[in-house]
Design goal:
Elements: H1 2-35, E1 40-55, E2 59-62, H2 66-80, H3 96-106, E3 112-126, H4 150-178, E4 180-183, E5 187-190, H5 195-198, H6 204-207, E6 219-223, E7 226-227, H7 231-239, E8 247-252, E9 260-264, E10 267-268, E11 275-276, E12 279-281, E13 283-287, H8 295-302, E14 315-319, E15 322-323, H9 327-335, E16 343-349, E17 352-358, E18 361-362, E19 365-370, E20 376-381, E21 389-394, H10 396-400, E22 408-412, E23 415-416, H11 420-429, E24 434-441, E25 444-451, E26 460-464, E27 477-480, E28 483-486, E29 499-503, E30 506-507, H12 511-527, E31 532-539, E32 552-558, H13 560-568, E33 571-572, E34 580-582, E35 584-587, H14 592-620, H15 631-644, H16 646-664, H17 672-685, H18 691-721
Antiparallel strand pairs: 1-2, 1-3, 4-35, 5-12, 6-7, 6-8, 8-9, 10-11, 13-34, 14-15, 14-16, 16-17, 18-33, 19-20, 21-26, 22-23, 22-24, 24-25, 27-28, 29-30, 29-31, 31-32
Helix pairs in contact: 1-4, 1-15, 1-16, 2-3, 4-14, 4-16, 4-17, 12-13, 14-16, 15-16
């Protein structure tokens, strides 16, 4: 309940912030219109009917005050007529000038300030300007929009965009005066098959660096020649890169005298569909205290690792006798692990130290598997051998379907003992319906009918059971880069669920043993660069141990490439980076002058990036339409910023203000940029664009904007459900 209330509060703060951005934009139009003598009849936040309004001389009203204003003006004008004149019943026979004059005489303002029921956008309504009917713009009134000079109208139209840019600068200055935390521009980990893993530094030979690729702990000094203030600078530069253009990184590596220079060609990530280098931000050595807020995380994350006796916020200060300053030191230690012997770790806080022996885990292969036209999942395997799929934890939805933590999934729909990718694929295909599920629980088979949500979930956290030797359906192909790669397990056939008893006659107890025995059996063949055939002894799956099960021995031929991959697999400490707090850097100005400079620079960079994004979507096609956020996505993202605090929210609003300025000044009819183009044409040809052309262009603009809103709305909802 508390989380729901916090969510509503954050959304309320975001709504206030959006209203401020829109108010400032419209204030620009309003002030300049007043300055050049244009009559402004309405200043509105939002669209649709008025929720409430204010007009000087009438006060606050529920709904619009327009009818009351005009009625009083007409009554006043009627009273001023001679006794012998016919009294007019409406305002139709009075022009706008007479209505305004009557209002002034009554002390009632001509401008209505209103907040509308649909709080998206806003507008200023000026006499003689109607976006939905530009052909009706010519009004015979000296205070109408159309009666003013082209220069004056250009000033009014562009003022909203200018005010948005000014607001962005002010917000950025406020943020940088206070300071804002961001992920440090340091490499935390490198994806083994990513573009950054194998590339050689341009000056590697000159600096005596032998190891290829970026390494954990590398500090990014600059990206494409620009100083890197935060890790996001790398992510943005990569995502915004032109297709087939490399990204230049200047990197400071511990122990290397001068910066290393890398030219890395980004590659489209199969999950995000954005250009990516395959690198992740760094973490500190401090365990995240938020884990203790959820007893389920303590039970599921800390306890299996022997870390449940730690105190919240303790720091990992030592591994195998060597100091640990950040998570990159954990990665460095893992490189030198030679086997599965326990590793001594020392944790410290102000209350003292605690020692924990960490059992290394045998690293398995990890590859991307396509499960539908849009989605891919990462699957761990050993040359294509995959473990059974279990249930690590369940939520209310899963519990309602009868699932329990510890269940072993034996059937999903028509898939028997599915591997992880098959399981996720089967569940996603049943989105919005029910799925027959069979699980093994305490030695008994339990049949369930699970509800699959519209998000394609049945309410459980999957567990890959590498601590057993039962094999699920073998993984036959994966995607590496742009290629489909066939795995060695595609060459063998066995019943899914079978228990692997031995490799070359040597007994195995879990996947770590399987890996070790495969390496032992093939070490000579690896040295001789030849293929090797091993034997796998398997028995069919049984809920209970059954000595009468018939053992099947199958040969498995592994080629030199498979052996190379097998023997390259190392060991890792069971300490995922998510356990630790991210390494942050505070971006803060030294004083007001620098804050203004940083605000101006950030506004300019955001302005350029927004135009670049449009180019990457429409021309380069490196950014997909589904990456563009509409109202729902912006609200969801903004609510998260609001949840981080006041200044992160200001940062988000500054970015939105710049985006609003760019979008509003695109040459699209119905937005400010389109009106500005019409004024340019009028200036060049000496007469306004014909009403027919303006009306047609306006309808096209409406259709275009409506289409964009619908598409982004659909993508936003799809992403939230996904």
């Amino acid at each position: 309940m508390l989380n729901v209330l916090e969510g509503f509060w954050h959304f309320f703060l975001l709504a206030i912030g959006f209203s401020l951005v829109i108010f400032i934009h419209e204030l620009g139009h309003f002030l300049t219109a007043k300055m050049v003598g244009i009559k402004v009849t309405r200043f509105a936040i939002g669209f649709g009917p008025a929720a409430f309004s204010f007009r000087k001389g009438l006060g606050l009203r529920f709904g619009s005050s327009e009818d009351e204003y005009r009625r009083r003006a007409v009554e006043h004008l009627n009273r001023l007529r001679t006794v012998t004149s016919a009294v007019r019943e409406g305002a139709g026979e009075y022009n706008e000038y007479q209505i305004s004059k009557a209002g002034d005489e009554l002390g009632i303002s001509e401008t209505e300030y209103r907040f509308n029921w649909i709080p998206l956008g806003g507008y200023v309504l000026m006499l003689g300007q109607d976006d939905l009917d530009p052909g009706h713009a010519a009004v015979a009134d000296p205070r109408s929009f159309s009666s003013k000079s082209i220069g004056a109208r250009m000033v009014v139209i562009s003022a909203g965009v200018i005010m948005n840019l000014i607001l962005a600068i002010v917000l950025f200055v406020a943020v940088y005066m206070h300071g804002i935390d961001a992920d440090a521009p340091r490499i935390g980990s490198v994806y083994a098959d990513g573009p950054a893993a194998a590339v050689k530094a341009v000056n590697a030979d000159a600096l005596g660096v032998q190891e290829p690729g970026l390494q954990p702990g590398d500090l990014i000094l600059s990206v494409n020649g620009k100083p890197a203030k935060a890790f996001k600078d790398l992510l943005i530069a990569t995502a915004m890169a032109k297709r087939n253009d490399s990204v230049r990184l200047d990197v400071q590596r511990p122990g290397v005298d001068k910066p290393l220079i890398f030219e890395i060609m980004p590659r489209e990530d199969k999950v995000t569909e954005l250009l990516d280098l395959g690198v992740y931000s760094a973490s500190t050595n401090r365990i995240n205290p938020a884990i203790w807020d959820d007893p389920r995380l303590v039970e599921r994350v800390l306890k299996p690792r022997g870390l449940d006796k730690l105190r919240p916020g303790m720091r990992l200060v030592e591994l195998v006798g060597k100091p640990v300053r950040g998570f990159s030191d954990v990665s460095e230690t893992e490189k030198h692990l030679a086997g599965g012997e326990p590793v001594k770790s020392v944790w410290k806080d102000e209350q003292g130290t605690i020692e924990v022996d960490l059992k290394p885990l045998a690293i398995m292969q990890s590859d991307m598997v396509k499960i539908n036209d849009r989605d891919m999942v990462s699957v761990r395997h050993l040359l294509g051998l995959t473990p059974l799929m279990g249930v690590a934890a369940v939520n209310k939805q899963g519990a309602a379907s009868g699932l329990k933590a510890g269940d072993i999934i034996t059937r999903l729909g028509d898939r028997v003992f599915p591997n992880y990718a098959e399981g996720i694929k089967t569940i996603r295909k049943a989105r919005g319906s029910h799925l027959n599920v069979t699980v093994l629980r305490d030695g008994d088979y339990v049949d369930l009918n699970a509800l699959v949500s519209s998000k394609g979930l049945i309410g459980f956290t999957p567990d890959e059971l590498f601590d057993k030797t039962n094999l699920s359906s073998p993984l036959k192909t994966v995607q590496r880069g742009d290629e489909d790669v066939t795995l060695p397990a595609a060459n063998i056939n066995f019943l899914p669920g079978s228990e692997l008893l031995a490799v070359n006659g040597r007994t195995v107890a879990d996947f770590t043993d399987i890996r070790s025995e495969l390496r032992l059996a093939t070490s000579k063949a690896l040295a001789e660069n030849r293929s090797e055939t091993v034997t796998l002894s398997l028995v069919p799956f049984a809920a209970e141990n059954n000595k009468d099960r018939e053992t099947v021995v199958i040969p498995w031929k592994l080629d030199p490439q498979a052996l190379k991959q097998l023997h390259e697999l190392g060991w890792q400490l069971n300490l995922p980076t998510e356990l630790f707090e991210p390494e942050l850097v505070q971006i803060k100005a030294d004083g007001p002058v620098q804050a203004i400079s940083m605000g101006l620079q950030e506004t300019w960079e955001m302005l350029v990036m927004t135009y670049l994004t449009i180019d990457r979507v429409l021309v380069q096609r490196t950014v997909k339409v589904q990456h563009i956020k509409g109202p729902v996505g912006i609200a969801e993202l903004g609510t998260r910023f609001a949840g981080q605090g006041f200044f992160p929210l200001l940062l988000f609003l500054a970015m939105i203000s710049v985006n609003l300025a760019v979008i509003n000044f695109l040459p699209i009819p119905i937005v400010d940029g389109g009106v500005f183009v019409f004024l340019l044409i009028e200036k060049i040809k000496g007469s306004p664009v014909s009403p027919v052309v303006q009306n047609a262009a306006t309808m096209i603009g409406l259709l275009l904007i409506g289409t964009v809103v619908l598409v982004t709305f659909y993508n936003d909802v799809a992403n939230l459900l996904h």
